[in-house]
Amino acid sequence: MIRHAEQTQGLNEIAQESEKQGLLLMGKIANQDRKAFEDLYFGYTPRIGRFLMKLLKKRELVDEAVNDVMLAVWQQAGRYDPAQGKLSTWLFGIAHNKGLKLLERQRRHQCEETFLSQSSPSENGQEPSGVDAEWIGSDNPERTVMGWEMGEHLLWAMELLSLEHRTVIELAINEQCSYQEIALITDCPVNTVKTRMFHARKKLAELLASKDYP
Amino acid sequence: MNLKNSDITIPVALGSFFPQNLEESALMNRKADDGHGIVAELLPWYVNGTLGSKEQEWVAGHLADCPKCRVELEQYQQLSSVISNNTETPDWQPSPAHFGQILSALDAEENGVIRNVAVVKKPSFLGQCADWLQAQAKPLVWALALETIVLAALVLFVVLPRLDQQTSGQTVFQTLSDAHAPTVAGLPRVHIVFADDIMIGDLRLLLVSVNARLVDGPSKLGVYTVELATVGNPDATALAIATLRKHSKVKLAEPVHP
Q: Which residues in B lie closer than 8 A to residue A63 (C-beta atoms)?
């Protein structure tokens, strides 16, 4: 328990320092400083890109979404208010919004293509569409945390979660966001965030049980 | 050992990344479960260390006395470990080339804005006249004279050309199916309707990406005409049109048939 508290404190100190640096950059960006803009890009987009990659699955879409996020940062840097939340939360909020718009555009495009080609749906009806081939099908030797099949099944199950459920899990686990921050990023009440997390876990349980995992 | 739920069986080895007993957990029986439900709700954020100090203490206190919630904590930590160590997702990393693209889009946008600002700030001829008149004596007389000039200009520039068009048989509007849409040197043309909020940077990037250029528009219906450099290559033309249609800021893209 003590070790957990020490780790948390250490991470908090790093996060506070990073936040301070981010605020300095934002002040400069508001004054059209391109060097600060570049520093912010290389400092923050690895996390933003990783989050968007989980959401969008395709590099070209993530490129476009990060592009949109950075343009929004350049145009709205002066409007960022630290009192409303951390810089990373603000950035993730923009990224989430841009990501959803791209997904919606892709969905519309796929609908049009399906309509035009009159193609039949996939045979099993369960594979998520628009996923890089390397995403699920690759043989990755590092896929060993809790066993090969565990990773395989978990990835499969995660892909079948709704976007809302997946987003909450990604933000809580991979991005270490608090439930208040997730509420800001996804623009919904904190109780909704907790409820989504609960149902995401429940859905994962059901999906893995349906796979009859040994 | 398996954990039983009403209609599913969850192996413990999988860690049930889920409340140990779903039907008794947080959202189902918040009041009657002695705090287990609330702890179950907060566990994901206890694990990632983002709870407030009071919540953190409260959950830690509950865990110290509750073996059931400790099992659930362990299971959630397993889930967290699997997901955070997942290397299956293709990686995305920033790059100087990508940043260069962002700067190009920024430049294109800012140049557009500066041009617009310049147009707005430059005083028009009539504006200059009005300023000059205001500095003169008897402004009312001069204002009336100006009004007369404006009316005369309207007649010359607006009404007369319409009459001329009507007499020559030309139509004022150009429709999407207009058979008279001109094609120069056989280059294929496309009618496009952009979204109202398209930015000039996006427009430039889009046109460059399909090797097209704006040749006409907007019409009174807001239709632009672009020319594609894909002469003699129907596949390339079809691909360019598909790319245009795919763009989120393009409401409509229809080939112009000669």
A: 98, 101
d(CA A27, CA A12): 23
Domain ranges of chain A: 15-121, 140-214
Phi, psi of A126 (to 5 degrees): -115, -25
In chain A, what residues touch B40 (CB-CB under 8 Å)?
198
Contact A205 B45 (CB under 8 A): no
With beta carbons under 8 A apart, name residues in chain A contacting B95: none
Residue of A nearest to B42 (CA): A194
Question: Percentage of residues in chain B with pLDDT exceeding 70?
Answer: 63
CATH class assigned to A15-121 = mainly alpha
**What is the ipTM metric for this complex?**
0.74
Residue A60 has pLDDT above 60, yes or no: yes
The rounded Cα A55 to chain-centroid distance in angstroms is: 5
Q: Residue A205 is nearest to which of B16, B81, B245, comparing CB atoms?
A: B16
Q: At what angle do helices A179-186 and A87-117 cross, to 10 degrees?
A: 50
- Taking the C-alpha atoms of residue B256 and residue B245, their distance in angstroms, rounded to an integer, is 14
> Per the structure block, which two tokens stand in for A168?
């909450």
Residue-wise pLDDT tens digits, B19-48: 444 434 444 444 445 678 888 889 999 998
Q: Please, what is the end-to-end C-alpha distance for chain A in angstroms?
A: 33
Residue A108 identity: R
Alpha helices in B122-255 (DSSP H): 125-134, 139-154, 160-168, 200-209, 234-246
Q: What are phi and psi of B9, to 5 degrees?
A: -120, 125
| Chain A residues within an 8 Å CB radius of B84 | 173-174
The C-alpha atoms of residue A142 and residue A151 are separated, in whole angstroms, by 10
C-alpha distance from B9 to closest chain A C-alpha (Å): 6
| pLDDT in the model for residue B72 | 84
Taking CB atoms and an 8 Å limit, are B94 and A143 in contact across chains? no
Tens digit of each residue's pLDDT (9 = 90 or more) over B195-221: 888 888 888 888 988 888 888 888 877
Q: A interface mutation test: which of B16, B18, B91 has the most A CBs within 10 A? A: B18
Q: Per-residue pLDDT averaged across B81-91, rounded?
A: 75
Fold of A140-214: Arc Repressor Mutant, subunit A (1.10.10)
The nearest CA of chain A is from the CA of B211 a distance in Å of 19
User: What CA–CA distance (Å, rounded) separates B58 from A84?
Assistant: 26
**Per-residue pLDDT averaged across B78-103, rounded?**
83
Per CATH, the number for B189-256 is 3.30.70.260
Contact B68, B3 (CB under 8 A): no
pLDDT value of residue A92: 95
Closest C-alpha to B73, from B86, B60, B54: B60
Sequence ranges of the domains in chain B: 2-84, 189-256
